[in-house]
Amino acid sequence: MIEVNGIRKKFGRKRVLQDVSFTAEKGEVTCIIGINGVGKTTIMNAIMNLTPLNGGQILIDGEKLSKKSYEKITFIPDAIIMQPTMTIAEAMQFMADFYDSWNQERADELLDFFKLQAGDKINNLSKGNRAKVNLLLGLALDVDYLLMDEPFSGIDIFSREQIADVFTSHLVEDRGVIITTHEINDIEHLIDQAVLLDNGEVLTQFSCEKVREDEGKSVVDVMREVYQP
Ligand SMILES: Nc1ncnc2c1ncn2[C@@H]1O[C@H](COP(=O)(O)OP(=O)(O)OP(=O)(O)O)[C@@H](O)[C@H]1O
Fold it and tell me: 122: pLDDT confidence band, cut at 50, 70 and 90?
């Protein structure tokens, strides 16, 4: 489990995270929801230990963040970081050379799943296919937790559906996934836990299935109540 306990972050005088706490379990997709600029990326960076905090702490499976955390967790940014002149096969080879946790079998399966051609140059791919390659490179790592910043942003409906399908497939399996979004509509069906952020604070965290079953509400219904009381 990833436990975010009361984290605080200031940039200069600006308080971006006031007191943020939530948990993300293995085998679940946890979605951090909030408008632009609310601090979602800052939270992801904090979990990856890429930004110093002004308070609070983050535990992964009960342990404080350290270099060892990177064996358990990976961050999939919202844009591909590979050289655009590389082919998909070259990008996969680069990852295989760099990461011990690279799982070639899963990478080949993902290539198939997303109907990508290994010989295609990243430069020549559509935005949707680039997003799929980006996801492939992250999902092919054998790590327990995957962090993704806005994986559906600016992608056409068909690519979005294919990307959504991977979350419910064995390719994500029992791993823990944290995604951020400011646009919940298309992905509501694949998230297990929702964390609603505003003004640098978590307004509420809830199980989407539980509110659906107990109260007959969708995530958007809860968002309306919380953001527009
Ligand atoms: N390195 C930085 N220096 C100064 N301010 C920063 C820095 N990084 C982020 N901020 C500010 O912190 C706030 C939160 O930024 P963050 O990128 O975490 O928001 P976000 O919720 O991910 O936004 P978006 O949905 O637009 O990606 C913003 O007001 C941003 O301008």
Answer: very high
Q: Which of 7, 8, 9, 11 to mutate to test the pocket of ligand 1 (most atoms within 8 A of CB)?
A: 11
ipTM for this prediction: 0.94
Q: Which of 4, 16, 202 to mutate to test the pocket of ligand 1 (most atoms within 8 A of CB)?
A: 16
- What Rg, from alpha-carbon coordinates, does the chain have? 18
The rounded distance, in Å, linking the Cα atoms of 149 and 46 is 13
Q: How far is the CA of 37 from the centre of ligand 1 (A)?
A: 5
- Indicate the burial class of 136 (C-beta count within 10 angstroms; 0-12, 13-18, 19 or more): buried
The secondary element (H helix, E strand) that includes residue 55 is strand 55-60
Q: What domains does the chain contain, in order, with CATH numbers?
A: 1-70+174-229 (3.40.50.300)
Edge-to-edge strand list for the sheet holding 55-60: 63-64, 55-60, 2-11, 14-24, 201-207, 193-198, 29-33, 176-181, 145-149, 73-76
Give the per-residue pLDDT at 187.
Answer: 83
Query: What's the pTM value of the predicted model, to 2 decimals?
Result: 0.91
